[in-house]
Amino acid sequence: MSISAITHTALSGMLAQSARAGAIANNVANAGTPGYGRLKTSFRSVEPSGVQTSVGETDQSVDFAAELTELIDTELSYKANASVFETGADLWDVLMSIKRD
Q: Where is the Flagellar basal body rod protein N-terminal domain (predicted)?
């Protein structure tokens, strides 16, 4: 796998987690709204590398403990993808310095 594919996958993961955080924020903001259905984010792997997200409404009510737990998981997943992206960027820097010398 190339460095650009790795950084693309990591970026795709960060975007997916951002969508998930948005759905969680929407759930918390609308928890008291009558008839509101909790939003759930689904992930699907796509080729050649990346993640596709879809956000759909469910018939479940909003549970603040579950939303907080999911937000913590979202944060950790985002940070993991950001670390991979930064590592890929560092590798590009190393390769560019080798090429110049």
A: 9-36
Domain that holds residue 48: 3-100
Q: How many domains does the chain have?
A: 1
Q: Which residues pair with residue 24 across a beta bridge?
A: none
6 membership: H or E segment, kind and range: helix 3-29
Q: How far is CA 23 from CA 30, 40, 48, 61, in A?
A: 11, 7, 26, 14
Spell 38-76 as b/e; 16+ CB within 10 A means b. bbbbeeeeeeebbbebeeeeeeeebeeeebeebbeebee
User: What is the percent of the chain with per-residue pLDDT over 70, rounded to a whole number?
Assistant: 97
Instruction: Look up residue 64 and give its two tokens.
Output: 């603040």
